Amino acid sequence: MTDYIELSYLDLAFAALLVLFNAGLSLALGLGLERRMLLAALRMTVQLLLVGLVLEALFQTVSLWLTALVALVMVLFAGREILARQERRLAGWWGYGIGATNMLLAGMVVTLLALGGPLRPEPPDLSPWFDPRYAIPLFGMILGNAMTGISLGLDSLTTMVGRERAGIEAQLLLGANRWRAMRTVARQALRTGFTPMLNSMAAAGVVFLPGMMTGQILAGVAPEQAVKYQILLLFLIAGATGLGVLGAVMASVWRLTDDRHRLRLDRLK
Fold first, then answer.
1. Measured CA angle at 248 (ends 44, 157), to 5 deg
2. Nearest 5°: phi and psi at 25?
3. How many whole angstroms separate alpha carbon 143 and alpha carbon 157?
């Protein structure tokens, strides 16, 4: 007997009727979103079911290399999502590499700090720090939120650089270095990247109950412990998002200029 409510596939099918309702609403109003909505729902369902099977097998084989491999695959796909969400992007490998690299570094640093600190296994659970039961879900949640912040920050930066080209080049002609000339657009990009994380922390608890906390309560965890876990997770997400957005925006500023302090919009695709 379990302390949580076990869901059947019939329960999931019942909930899927809400997605069908949204698709019908889009069709009736001529929004043109019904196809994307249904494909997104189908893709999400297939991906999560496959991930569930992979995690079930992974949890039975506690291996550092397998855990690292799964984490790397997650980063590679998340990097592709960052690239796809940018209207203008850096040409060549840079468009993918800057987002993926900064997301990997930020997510890895924060996840390792959490696994070595507040989430370290304690007796009688003597599992290693890289136990996929802890490492993969934690890394995934941190990665997903950092991905959103980085994609928004980079999209804002590249869009504003194109729009503010005249002002940036005027400052460069007057003797400002690349960092000073790009400071305004970089600040705005950082604000944009930080906004989702700040909104989540400001509204958590009063406007909405975060997903992790809700899931733990439904699984039978005491509300007090569920709240503590959610607060910890939000702090970890904030740290990873800050590191990722800062690194990605600064790296993009460096790439969009050169050593002679010239604006290089030719490096945008």
1. 90
2. -65, -40
3. 21
What is the DSSP annotation of 120-179? ---TT----TT-HHHHHHHHHHHHHHHHHHHHHHHHHHHHHHHHTHHHHHHHHHTT--HH
Bridge partners, 268 (sequence order) = 90
CA 231/CA 145 separation, integer angstroms? 15
Q: What are the tokens at 245?
A: 């957005």
Rg (CA), the chain: 22
- Tell me the per-residue pLDDT of 184-231, one tens digit each, with 9 for 90 and over: 999 999 999 999 888 888 877 776 667 777 777 777 778 888 888 888
Looking up tokens 């050593």 gives 259
End-to-end Cα separation, the chain, in angstroms:
57
Q: Taking the CB of residue 142, how many other CB atoms lie within 10 A of it? A: 25
Q: Measuring CA to CA, how many Å separate 125 from each of 36, 112, 138, 172?
A: 44, 18, 18, 59
The residues, any chain, with a CB within 8 Å of residue 238's CB and separated by 6 or more, are 197, 201
Distance (Å, whole) CA 36 – CA 43: 10
pTM of the model: 0.83
Displacement of CA 32 from its chain's centroid (Å): 27
